[in-house]
Write a structure and sequence with these properties.
The structure holds two protein chains of two kinds. Chain A has helices at about 35-45, 120-125, 145-155, 165-170, 175-185, 195-210, 220-225, 230-245, and strands spanning about 5-10, 20-25, 70, 75, 95-100, 110, 115. Chain A is of the alpha+beta class. In chain A, the strands form two sheets. Chain A has a five-stranded mixed β-sheet. In chain A, β6 (about 110) and β7 form a beta hairpin. Helix content of chain B is about 35%, strand content about 15%. Chain B is built from 17 helices and 19 strands. In chain B, the strands form five sheets. Chain B has a five-stranded parallel β-sheet. The two termini of chain B are about 45 Å apart. The chains are: A alpha+beta, B alpha+beta. Chains A and B meet through α1, α2 and α3 of A and α2, α4, α5, α11 and α12 of B.
């Protein structure tokens, strides 16, 4: 296969970027998309040009590192598929392929196709955990959990934190990511003590990071490589509302010295 | 000569860990913030250690090369995590998990460490559930279990096929909690380049900021290495692309003993490479061998589609060679035979390195729907990658490097031979001997990170004056200069071949000479080829860009440079271990059924290599293994 690539090139966060075009010959249909990028980079290196920087690691669709907008879609044309699991057979010989980074004001470009997604980590820091020390804990079977609840919690926890939802959303909203994290813990009995404080502070942090608002386009669900449902957004909104309606409890930070 | 004192506690094995903890010196809560501990790696071992120590009050800094600690390769583990909860009432116990692990490791692990691992296994499940890890539940809401290879009980806990992801998200959330509480400082996109050793003790590290290229000094009272395994020395493996040996290897060069480097686990059923451009391999669960029949065409010139090849012209080599066990021979036997038939030119697929795994017979007997539903996610994964439907045409599979049992030598406290430097998870050698059982790697990482290192490190720290050495010490300047020189050396070769190209060639050498099976001649040949390749690397490497910018080629070249040295160490170890054990099969030593034949008389020891300088042969030290609690026995999965 021969393909025509148009790739976003940007040397550093403060430099201006541009689209550059490259023709690549000898592409095999059984190559993964990232292997095609490897071949391109080998070629560029050989020609003394600078290879294209992109994030990748596990290359089996679970680490969430890869992050390319391919022909206008986060992770490319195939549903519930990360960039690393996309294959060149999904493209036609002679195809024009446009590759851009995950774009959002909250994901600054570091170089070429690499973006800074540390905003997601900060949303988790705002409350995406159950407070714990390491040490003896109750036996798990002392708190039975309905399998349907566990399954639903796991559906939410399957989010790989790649940021495709943000890249897909016309508003650059991170509601799908945040709601998946909120719901994973909020549905489990272990997550109840901090449930409302958690949702309130995670949503506040999400807004502080500069992500846009949700307008129910549902592009996030359509382009999510793990098929996370927007039903979790509804669930988060309900919990967020409750967190504002209920009498504020003394959070840990406000506990009185005894 | 290294001093290999394992610092084993006294008393019966059942009481050792408890007694040991009672004897350890502690650091009081009011003093912990004075001590700075660096954790290298943010996978299951690193994240759990950093979070646990942060919560205790130590000043922790954690480093990972990925953009977020949640991306560490632990996330890709599929199957599950073992714990001897005995929820199924099927006779499981700490003792059984201990002996299963020892037998599985073919008696090349230190039994006291293994017993402790089994003892801690149940607390790990409790800890993870408290964090919100959504393990599979039964209808009544209790935890579900499944069975894994090499054992007779159901003790594996799981979250669909994404157990590693959920456990890592648990550890990651605990880590993020501590980051929010400012007890842990996280350095993402940061790579360790070297260690600063002052008067024999580790006192800090030099890192490179992968975004700006800046070299940075970090002083510390102790360092915990949790940087994973080195399977990528083979270039193609099931490891993530970024996995590397650098943090481990540079510790070795600074004086840490490296134990059993040649112990590599090779998984028999992965999706084969489809061409030269192949960048990594994806595992398919071994459970497929329950219904799949493995074969290759008898005729090396066969051109027909597999479904058009009549029964008589198919070579069901496992069924013919091992009539009693057929397609269910142990992992290592299945892997070796696949390589053997492919080396004879009978392999299938575009590269000739693949064999068929055929579900035709099972489909005829049970119906396509039944077979499909049993393996649905695996069939789907296979089809996604290869575009072939395993119901219509046989799968193609081939063995792949999956896990490395070797690692830095550690004592019972998980401290390496460098005082103050600890190693946890896959980066140490301690628990899996010559072969790891399924669902045991996650268990070991979390036992080390949540429960062992946070306790044992206090004993060392309590004997240190906190913050004694700061980053203005001469040694920091010296090591930083070494790192800078090393980077410049790589960038100024100005040759013609990329680091990828060298890595790929090294991988082929390792696979050919130190792979599924090894023999003296072939290892010696490997030991001739690797230095040649290394010389070419240092004279003909082409590296674009500069050190002062985001430069992924430079990161990779540095890792390949270490792999080139490390590959040689692996071959030296494999050559010195003149026996077969677990995954280390020396062709000279095998039973009639092609199983590994141990030589306990001469080789019941841990091989610990000591760095002696550039171009000098490392010294082999031995830690004798004693089997007091559970005596030696021959590995036997057949009767």
């Amino acid at each position: 296969m021969k393909i025509h690539l148009h790739i976003w090139r940007q040397e550093s966060p403060d430099k201006k970027g541009r689209m550059e075009s490259y023709d690549l010959d000898g592409v095999e249909p059984d190559m993964s998309f990232l292997e095609m990028m490897d071949v391109l980079n080998e070629k560029l290196t050989g020609e003394g040009q600078s290879p294209v920087a992109f994030d990748h690691d596990c290359r089996e669709g679970v680490c969430g590192a890869c992050s390319m907008v391919i022909n206008g879609q986060a992770h490319g044309p195939k549903a519930t598929t990360t960039t690393c699991q996309l294959y060149m057979r999904h493209f036609k010989d002679g195809a024009e392929i446009y590759i851009e980074p995950f774009r959002s004001g909250a994901f600054p470009v570091l170089r070429d196709l690499m973006v800074d997604r540390s905003a997601f980590d900060r949303i988790i820091q705002a409350g995406g955990y159950i407070s714990n020390h390491s040490g003896p804990k109750p036996d798990p079977n002392s708190i039975p959990i309905e399998p349907a609840v566990q399954e639903s919690s796991l559906d939410a926890a399957s989010c790989i934190g790649c940021g495709a939802c943000v890249a897909a959303c016309p508003n650059g909203s991170a509601m799908l990511f945040t709601s998946a994290k909120v719901s994973h813990l909020g549905m489990l009995p272990q997550g109840q003590p901090e449930r409302f404080e958690r949702v309130a502070s995670m949503v506040d942090q999400m807004e502080e990071e500069g992500f846009g608002s949700c307008r129910n386009y549902a592009e996030c669900e359509a382009q999510c490589p793990k098929g996370i449902s927007i039903a979790f957004i509804g669930r988060m909104n309900a919990d967020y509302l409750k967190s504002k309606l209920i009498e504020p409890v003394d959070g840990r930070g406000k506990m009185h010295a005894q | 000569m290294l001093t290999l004192d394992a610092k084993l506690p006294h008393g019966p094995i059942e009481d050792m860990w408890t007694n040991h903890k009672d004897q350890l010196r502690l650091v009081g809560p009011n003093n912990r913030h004075k001590y700075k501990v660096l954790v290298i790696g943010s996978g299951l071992a690193g994240a759990s250690a950093a979070a646990s120590m942060g919560a205790m009050g130590y000043r922790v800094e954690c480093f990972c090369f990925q953009d977020s600690p949640r991306r560490a390769h632990s996330i890709a583990a599929q199957g599950g995590i073992n714990a001897s909860k005995n929820y199924r009432n099927d006779g499981d116990s700490t003792w059984r998990l201990f002996t299963d692990t020892q037998k599985g490791g073919d008696f090349r692990a230190r039994e006291e460490n293994v017993y402790r691992l089994a003892e801690l296994s149940t607390a790990i499940i409790d800890q993870c559930v408290a964090q919100g890890v959504p393990f599979a539940r039964e209808y009544g809401g209790k935890l579900a279990n499944r069975s894994f290879g090499g054992v007779l009980v159901e003790r594996t806990f799981y979250c669909r096929g994404e157990t590693g992801q959920q456990l890592l998200l648990g550890a990651y959330s605990a880590l993020e909690e501590q980051i929010a509480k400012k007890t842990v400082k996280m350095h993402t996109r940061t790579e360790l380049l070297d260690y600063v050793i002052v008067d024999g003790n580790v006192r800090g590290i030099i890192t490179r900021d992968l975004v700006t290229g800046k070299l940075e000094r970090h002083s510390a009272d102790a360092v915990v290495l949790a940087s994973g395994g080195y399977g990528n020395v083979f270039y193609l493996s099931t490891n993530a692309k970024g996995c590397n040996v650098t943090a481990n290897f540079r510790a070795y060069r600074r004086g840490a003993g490296f134990a059993n480097p040649c112990f590599t686990q090779i998984h028999p059923t992965s999706i084969p490479a489809s061409g030269e451009y192949q960048s990594k391999l994806t595992l398919m669960s071994e459970s497929l061998r329950n219904d799949g029949r493995i074969w290759v065409p008898r005729d090396p010139d066969e051109k027909r589609a597999p479904t058009d090849i009549p029964e008589a012209e198919r070579y069901y080599y496992l069924e013919e060679r091992y009539p009693r066990f057929g397609n269910l021979v142990p992992r290592d036997v299945a892997a070796r035979n696949a390589k053997d038939v492919c080396d004879q030119g009978l392999g299938v697929g575009p590269t000739g390195y693949g064999v068929y795994l055929d579900f035709g017979t099972a489909i005829e007997e049970k119906g396509a729907e039944a077979v499909k539903s049993k393996y649905s996610n695996l069939f789907e994964m296979y089809e996604r990658i290869t575009d072939d439907d395993p119901v219509k045409t046989p799968m193609r599979i081939y063995p792949a490097v999956h896990y490395t049992m070797g690692g830095l030598w550690v004592d019972y406290n998980l401290m390496t031979t460098i005082p103050g430097l600890y190693a946890a998870g896959e980066s140490n050698f301690a628990d899996h001997g010559a072969n790891r059982l399924g669902a045991s790697s996650l268990m070991q990482c979390l036992a080390d990170g949540y429960f062992v290192v946070p306790v044992t490190i206090g004993d060392y720290l309590s004997r240190q004056t906190p913050g004694e050495i700061d980053i203005n010490h001469d040694q920091f300047a010296e090591v930083e200069q070494d790192c800078r020189d090393n980077l410049n050396r790589l960038l100024t070769i100005n040759g013609t071949r990329s680091s990828q190209d060298f890595h790929r060639e090294l991988g082929k050498i390792m696979w050919e000479h130190c792979g599924i099976s090894r023999n003296k001649d072939s290892l010696e040949e490997g030991l001739r080829k690797i230095p040649e390749l290394r010389d070419q690397f240092w004279s003909d490497l082409k590296l674009p860009g500069e050190a002062s910018e985001l430069n992924q080629s430079l990161e990779h070249a540095g890792r390949v440079a270490d792999f080139l040295d490390f590959g040689e160490l692996m071959c030296q170890d494999a050559l010195a271990r003149d026996e077969s054990c677990g995954c280390h099969l020396r062709e000279e030593y095998q039973t009639e059924e092609n199983e590994a034949q141990r030589n306990d008389e001469d080789f019941a020891f841990v091989s610990v290599f000591e760095y002696k300088g550039e171009g000098v042969k490392p010294e082999l030290n031995k830690e004798p293994l004693e089997f007091k609690a559970f005596p030696l026995a021959t590995r036997n999965y057949k009767s």
